[in-house]
Amino acid sequence: MKKRLIILSVLSVLLILLSSGCGNGKYEESGTLIIDADDALKLAAGGDWTVIDAQKKTSFEKEHLEGAVNIERAQITVSKPVANSLAPALDIEAAASAAGLTADSNVIIYDDNSNMDSGRLAWTLMFYSHKGQVKIVSGGLAALKAERASIVSGRATAAKTSYKAGSAIETLLADKAELVKQIDNPEADVVILDVRTDEEYNAGTIPGSIHIDYVQNNFKDGTYKPVQHIRILYKDAGIMPEDTIIMYCKTSIRAAETYAALYNAGYRNLKIYDGAWLEWSSDKSLPVYIPEVPGNVRIEVQDAS
Predict the structure, then answer these.
(1) pTM, full prediction
(2) Within 13 A of 221's CA, how many CA atoms are on the CB side?
(3) Of 284, 261, 281, nearest to 273 (Cα)?
(4) What are the φ/ψ torsions at residue 106 (nearest 5 degrees)?
């Protein structure tokens, strides 16, 4: 009997450690950013939330959730220093005002692009200290359709407001100099995370990067994997919640999708390198690591972000 009690006690401790994400580090509150389509529709029906469609304007006019307003990527990014760079506060204020938002608006965001554009808009609002709650619909428009949501076409207008962006939270952003410093004098608790495809990574990456393709955050239907799946995926790669994680892709749109997955899983020391691979690879003075894989050749992927 005593031996059985000891075994049961050990098993109980193991279960507690596993359920808390294992013993190293501490995850913050999870499940706060990403919601299922069913829950999104319930919130939207309550009237206290504004639904934002993050599709391109042309796609929005073709089909969108009834009652949604549109903020497309082009409204929240600029082309310099590289494509899809974070737009200044004035641009964000103009886009949010046209969509009828205030700084206190609770917003639900979806897209038709594997959660990339909804993730990018959510990160942008967080960067500019949006006061209201922000939620991302897991799986976007396809998931909403699967829940038999009312889908309409045409333009949509909102009562224009005067949105005021808050202070920029610079700790959510990394620049080239910070990456160079990390390469020259690596810190044990800083992770550089490349979220591009295998082909892009194998063609060249920032030295020291850990590679996890952003699509691994999703199931095949485009919905995000649950919190525990995300924690296991990144822990298996040696990435812990206490680490500072600097993520990038080609222009850091896919990086924003990963940002959302990690934030929702309780990671908080998160940064996006907004210049991304486009900036890094264009500076010939910077080092590039070519992974040693059989038959490796340089591959330039033009259509990813």
Answers:
(1) 0.89
(2) 13
(3) 281
(4) -85, 125
Sign of the CA dihedral running 56, 60, 62, 65? positive
Tokens 């499940």: give the residue: 31
| 16 exposure class (CB count in 10 Å sphere: 0-12, 13-18, 19+) | exposed
Is the confidence at residue 176, as pLDDT, over 90? yes
What's the CA gap between 112 and 264, in Å, rounded? 20
CA distance linking residue 184 with residue 196, whole number of Å:
23
Note the pLDDT tens digit of each residue in 125-145.
999 999 999 999 999 999 999
Query: Which residue, among 127, 65, 140, has the nearest Cα to 96 in the 3D structure?
Result: 127
Inform me whether the pLDDT recorded for 18 exceeds 80: no
N residues, the chain: 305
Query: What does the angle CA 237 – CA 243 – CA 244 come to, to the nearest 5 degrees?
Result: 115
Could you give the count of Cα atoms lying within 13 Å of 186 in the half-sphere of its Cβ? 10
Report the pLDDT averaged over residues 93-117: 98
